[in-house]
Here is the input.
Amino acid sequence: MLEIMMRLAVTLCILAVVYTLPLSTALYIKRSPDQNTVCSRSTPCGWGVYDVHSRLVQFYMKGPCYCPNGTRCVRTTDALLIYSFVYHCRPLSRPAEHVWPEYEE
Here is the structure.
């Protein structure tokens, strides 16, 4: 249990640092002050934090934005340093094996 809590703390710290650094390639569309932001192609829509030994997802962390119409949040990369799969918005027409839980059919 302590190992999971430490991994969660490290993951959250890394994510906090990543989102406080200026990213020249990460663009987003700001809708209005009272609505969320739409994820760009390079902004993660979520992370699946997994067990380091089994690589089974223990829990999901939603990103700071949401996928626009015609897209869904799918697994795109593996962030080995933070024991997480990274999810990005991709077109519905593109086949996807690992889809964010709320987008599963």
